[in-house]
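1st attempt posting a full record on here, be nice pls
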Amino acid sequence: MPSRDEALAVTLAIAAALLAMILAIVVGLSAGPLPATESGPPDPACIEWTDSCVVCARTPEGMACSTPGIACTKGAPRCLRR
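the predicted structure (as C-alpha cells):
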C-alpha cells in the first residue's frame, strides 16, 4: 500500500493532467471553426470536396472541414458530392 505522501503525489499529478487537458480543450474551442481549404470548392454547386488533405462540406451551420492527416499531400480540389 502506498504511503500517504505517494498517494497525494499521484492524486496531484492526475489533477494537473486533467486540468491541462481541460485548458487545451477550452483554448481549442475558443479558436473558432477550422479554416476551409484555401482553394475552396471546385465549383459553387459542390457541397462536399477534398484536396487530398482535408474534406470540407457545406452544412446548415456553415462550412465544416476535417483536420489534415499527419502525412497529407495537398492536391487540386475535387468535388465529392453535388
